[in-house]
Structures are given as structure tokens and as C-alpha cells.
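Researcher: Structure for this, please.
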Amino acid sequence: ITLVRDKVKLEEQAAQKEVLDIKQDDLNFKIGVIEIPTFYSDFEAQQRGDKNFRSTTRDVRKIIGELKEEGVDGIIVDLRNNGGGALNEAIDLTGLFIKDGPVVQVRNSDGSIQVGSDDDPGVVYDGPLAVLVNRFSASASEIFSGAIQDYERGVIIGEQTYGKGTVQNLIDLNRIMQSADDKLGQVKVTIAKYYRVNGGSTQSLGVIPDIKLPTSVESDEFGESSQESALPWDEINPTDFKAAGNIKEFLSMLRQKHEERIEASSEFDYLRDDLQDIKKQKENNLVSLNEEARRKEMEKEEEEKFRRENERRKVKGIKLLDKGEEIKDSSAPEDLYLDETARILADLVAMSVG
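Model: Predicted structure, C-alpha cell format:
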């Protein structure tokens, strides 16, 4: 079998935008969302001298301009499931939201420390900002969100991130052999470690959000810290940096309003129940091998799912499903986490204006 390596199309992983209309406390807000699946750069086009080569920072800069024209009140950078990518892009992207300054520290295996900095004093967007992360936001995502948090430039919302704070390199073992017939392959070794500007590593610990959202993902089951040979968290001296905002002044009130909102939300009630069911399923490590018993279990699960969907529809005043009708479009918001993040940011906008 011959496998042909295909090229990854940038369009499939490029940054995208949408605008959410949020009504809250009798006020209307337009919240821009920039989803970034990975930190990318078209290195081939750049090497060819193409002045219009694409990258995360270039695309986001353009998107911010479009969102400004649309009159958004705040911007969410959605980094959920973003496993990282080009380090320079994480640094440059941070530079769109802060003036010049250090973004990340890299400590090499010999103990030397290099600082990755944004050298551009210009700021593309200085308005209200939120960064949405989850357990699968890793590496470059953690460098960006960690810097935004350290500079107090925006509020970090979601789950504790993955904790991928190490740098690896591949060593070709065939180079050290005399005979060309010896094929030993490659070995991956860790050569450096990432640290935030406040001195703390992103390794194992990741980035702790300012406001946590409910999740079924256990940190001891997923993430770098769950790996047997993971390097531990540690810290070095902080770099010399100055806060770009004052987000800490608003966090207490933002958390309070968030807790009050989700406590009164039927959608979050359903979510909490779902998360509890998932937890019970994880704890139940017994599965019947009897076909009839398994079918009854599945039928019971479908009946419960149908009942809960009609409960949700009744509360929202939506037409109930007939018995046996397939559940196609749930009455729940498509993205409850994004919706709540937008509402938290709307709170921040209102507080900033007030």
C-alpha cells in the first residue's frame, strides 16, 4: 500500500469570525467571536517572498478590523481544542492586544533563558476582551492566554488548560552510524521549557481560568499532568513587564453575576445533570454482555433523552416532540459555553462603560 502525504489546507484551520447578539439587563450587545483552531503560518509562501502570506496573526488582524467596522462591543478569542502550533504566532498574536513587551520565557536545558517579546508598540484592539479555553487548549494557546492573563488584558474563561509547557526536538540516530544500512530512526528529546512572564511554567499546571465553566473532563484523566513521565510545574524569576489593563478589579463582580446567572439557568441545570450522568457512567465499569439487557439499557437511555428534550422544549415554549420522533434540533443553545462567555463579556462591557 502506497500512502501519499497530502498538504494541509490553511483554509481548513484558519481563524474565523462570527457576531453574537446578546440581550442582557435590558441592554443589547454585539460580541465578536474569533475562533482560532491552531497557530499557523504559511512558511513556504513566506520563504518565496510572498508579501501576502497567511498566518494566524495576519488573519486575526484583518478580522479585528472587520469586527470594528461591524461595531462590536467586545471580542472573544476562542481557543478551545487549539493544540498549539507556531510559537512566533502566539507571540505576535498577543502583540495585537498589548503594547510592546515580553510574552514568554524559554529556559533551555543548559539553564539559559531566552525571552520572546512583542516589539511592535502598536495595539490593534484595546477594547473588552475574553479568551475561551478548555482542557484541550495547549502549548501556544497557553502562552497566549497566559500572557493575556498576566497583563490583565482580558478575562480567561473555561477550563484549566492542557499543561503542555515543554519543547521537543527530533534527533536523527542514523547520522551517528557509520553504515548507511543501519536504520535506527529518530528519538524525541525535551530540550526546553516554557514560562509565563510572571515566572510560572505552563507545564503540567496549564492556565487556570479566571472564571471556570462546568465540565466533565477530569484534570487527572486528561492533560499533561496525567502522563506518567510528565515534567512537574516550577517557576523562575518573572520578567519586567507592566500590566496593560485592570481586569482584576472586575473579576469578583463578574464571577458573582456569572454564578447568579447559571444558578437561575434551566439550560445549565440540564448541563449539570448531563455532566453528573457522564460521571456516573465513567464510574460504572461494568457492561452487560447480554444482548437483551444491553438493548433495554439503550432504550432506557433514549427514553430519558427524549423526556429531557421535551422538558427543555416546554420551558422554552417550543413545540414538543411526538413519541418516536427523532431528536434533530435540540432546543438548547448550540454552544452554551460560548453563549455564557459572551454574557460574561457583556457584563464587563457594561461595567467598563459604567
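Researcher: Any notable elements?
Model: Residues 10-265 form a domain with the 2-enoyl-CoA Hydratase; Chain A, domain 1 fold (CATH 3.90.226.10). The longest strand covers residues 186-195.
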